[in-house]
TrEMBL record:
<feature type="domain" description="Ribosome recycling factor">
    <location>
        <begin position="22"/>
        <end position="185"/>
    </location>
</feature>
<dbReference type="InterPro" id="IPR002661">
    <property type="entry name" value="Ribosome_recyc_fac"/>
</dbReference>
<keyword id="KW-0648">Protein biosynthesis</keyword>
<dbReference type="InterPro" id="IPR023584">
    <property type="entry name" value="Ribosome_recyc_fac_dom"/>
</dbReference>
<dbReference type="Pfam" id="PF01765">
    <property type="entry name" value="RRF"/>
</dbReference>
<feature type="compositionally biased region" description="Basic and acidic residues">
    <location>
        <begin position="141"/>
        <end position="167"/>
    </location>
</feature>
<dbReference type="InterPro" id="IPR036191">
    <property type="entry name" value="RRF_sf"/>
</dbReference>
<comment type="similarity">
    <text>Belongs to the RRF family.</text>
</comment>
<feature type="region of interest" description="Disordered">
    <location>
        <begin position="141"/>
        <end position="187"/>
    </location>
</feature>
<protein>
    <recommendedName>
        <fullName>Ribosome-recycling factor</fullName>
    </recommendedName>
</protein>
<keyword id="KW-0963">Cytoplasm</keyword>
<comment type="function">
    <text>Responsible for the release of ribosomes from messenger RNA at the termination of protein biosynthesis. May increase the efficiency of translation by recycling ribosomes from one round of translation to another.</text>
</comment>
């Protein structure tokens, strides 16, 4: 639905995309409890290319403090082990045939604070993405106004709507960040 030079559905879709991406980034942060999402950022050098871990193995959580990775091809076990160790997630897998067991140690206070900083970096990236979407929307409105297809009053009304969408997205980002921060700092 293009309303006089701006597609609000597209703007909302892009704002929602920034929020979804941020929530996926938060899901990959370790909080002391095992989650299969913790290994989402791991990329494995396999078959001549780099691919996500879940393309070469099954990730499961058999216990609250243990992640299990079942590699499908036994020749890939070494590459998966290396990828997990080099991922800077602080994991030390134990190889058992084609299965890697990853015990999650308790997080110390320093590591919790580092994870909170990383969560804040993810939040800032998401806020910047939302602001970029706002900027693009505002540029569309200015162009439509300049072309004469939109009056100044309509442009101002649409600008306020774009700003409101941005504010709501940033508010959702802040809410998700504070929830994750509380989860990380919980002992």
């Amino acid at each position: 639905m293009s309303t006089d030079g701006i597609d609000f559905k597209d703007v909302q879709r892009r704002m929602d995309g920034a929020l979804t991406s941020f929530k996926n980034d938060l899901a990959s942060l370790r909080t002391g409890r095992a989650s299969s999402n913790l290994l989402d950022p791991v990329q494995v050098a396999a078959y001549g290319s780099t691919m996500p871990l879940n393309a070469v193995a099954t990730v499961s959580v058999p216990e609250p403090r243990m992640i299990s990775v079942s590699v499908w091809d036994k020749q890939m076990v070494g590459a998966v082990d290396r990828a997990i160790r080099e991922s800077n997630l602080g994991f030390n897998p134990i190889v058992d045939g084609t299965t890697l067991r990853i015990p999650l140690p308790e997080l110390n206070e320093q590591r919790r604070k580092e994870l909170v900083k990383i969560a804040h970096q993810y939040a800032e990236q998401a806020r910047v993405a939302a602001r970029h979407v706002r900027r693009d929307g505002m540029e569309q409105l200015k162009k439509a106004e300049k072309d004469g297809s939109l009056s100044q009053d309509d442009s101002r009304i649409h600008s306020e709507r774009v700003q409101k969408m941005t504010d709501e997205t940033i508010s959702s980002i802040e809410s998700a960040l504070s929830g994750k921060e509380a989860e990380i700092m919980q002992v």
